[in-house]
Amino acid sequence: MDQAAAPPLAVEQHTLGNGLRVVLAQDPALPLVAVNIWYHVGSRNERPGRTGFAHLFEHMLFQGSQHVGTNDHFRYVQQAGGVANGSTWYDRTNYYETLPAHQLELGLWLESDRMGYLLPAMTAEKLETQRQVVMNERRQRVENQPYGRAFERVHELLYPAQHPYHWPVIGYMEDIAAATLEDVQTFFRTWYTPNNAVLTLAGAIDPPAALGLVDHYFGDIPAGPAPQPAPPPPLPVGGGRREELADDVQLARLYLAFHGPAYGADDWYAGDLLATVLTGGRSSPMYRDLVHGRQLAQDVALFVLPTELSATVALVATARPEVSPATLEAALWEHLQRAAAGPPAAEGLERAHNRLLTSHYQSLQEVDQRADQLSQHALYFGDPAGMAREVERYLAVDGAALATFAAGHLRPQQAVTVTVVPR
């Protein structure tokens, strides 16, 4: 695939006096604008006994601010013909609106009002309402979901109790239930400040005019103290921990998990490319062998999380009804050991390169996804245009680097193994 086929990126980065970083990406192809804001706060900024705050806050920010009524954020955006939402992750929380370009000011007003004027509208009643929503969400996604507890347990075994990736992003039920209004207010004052955020505008904008509007709506919000995340404890050397979970499922599922490099490191890209080589699509070697060939698995996937402190590398496979977990596990290790023994076939590496590059270029075609990637690179690395250079990072990875990654990170003595079996 020719790198020259990548669409050009016209990207500017500015910083307001209060520390808010502003990324502007002009693209007049469609009369749309994406308003995308990332706060550098996620579940990693919580502590044991106080988990789930970042995700609870995502819900609270749609409950109105000083000049926006409860649930009016969605109403205003929808009436303008746009869409809005947010999401929470280990390392960040983001909010976004995609609007007709002439409605840019609406998106800026809504985001600035909840950044600068959320606390006057925050009440114990709103907190209790959203607490119940989040607790119900946890029941649906985790506690009453087949295999729902498994990945939580993987992280609990992979990371020590004080490490910020030990607990789930959604938090634990008892911690969500114990959250007080004062806790939530303190969390907001600490992390939801302009100097801890990146605002990206992408689409049919005039950059000088857009920057003036950003300064008008956000410039008078005072900066907060520089956030000081607690340093994480060191990761354990070696693994070898195993656990079996009984669940209301019909098929056994295996999780093999390992520590990997932090997102942005050269070997993170090697790991992500290896995952695509081994399990990316029906023509990948693990899928061909385990699903179609020997028919040991219903499905198989290897993935590397893009997290800041270190990556979770996880291999997940669901056994066929007549296949024992031990048989499937042995077959998974065959492939991992083969990957560590030498480079993959040239055609497999080329297919993985093309698959990743196709996904990358497709994401650039959507103004909301482009804005999201610009915010991510600005927040994590201070370089929004770095998203375009990820293509080069992947292309620089050769087969030897994949074997080195597998040999260094995917070893039995480093693995955490969780097996979910029918109750």
Count of helical regions: 15
Helix content: 40-55%
Q: What is Rg?
A: 23 Å
Given as residue ranges, the uncertain stretches (5+ residues, pLDDT < 50) are: 1-6
Lateral arrangement of strands in the main beta sheet: 1-2-6-3-5-4
State the distance separating the first and last CA atoms: 48 Å
What is the H/E order? EEEHHEEHHHHHEHEEHHEEHHHHHE
Classify the beta-strand content into a percent band.
15-25%
- What would you call the structural class? alpha+beta
Secondary structure tally: strands: 11
Mean pLDDT: 94
Shape: globular
The major β-sheet equals: 6 strands, mixed
How would you characterize this protein structure?
The protein is α+β, with helices and mostly antiparallel strands and 423 residues long. 43% of the residues lie in helices and 19% in strands. The strands form two sheets. It has a six-stranded mixed sheet, with helices on both faces. Helix 1 (53-60) packs across helix 4 and helix 3 (104-116) packs parallel to helix 8. The model is unreliable at 1-6 (pLDDT under 50).
Observed structural traits:
disordered N terminus; 6-stranded mixed sheet; globular; alpha+beta; 423 residues; 19% strand; 5-stranded mixed sheet
How are the SSEs ordered, and which strands pair?
Layout: E1 11-15, E2 21-26, E3 32-39, H1 53-60, H2 72-79, E4 83-88, E5 93-100, H3 104-116, H4 124-143, H5 150-158, H6 173-178, H7 181-191, E6 197-203, H8 207-218, E7 241-247, E8 253-260, H9 266-279, H10 285-293, E9 297-304, E10 311-319, H11 325-341, H12 346-365, H13 367-381, H14 386-395, H15 399-409, E11 416-422
Parallel strand pairs: 2-6, 7-11
Antiparallel strand pairs: 1-2, 3-5, 3-6, 4-5, 8-10, 8-11, 9-10
Helix pairs in contact: 1-4, 3-8, 9-12, 9-15, 11-15
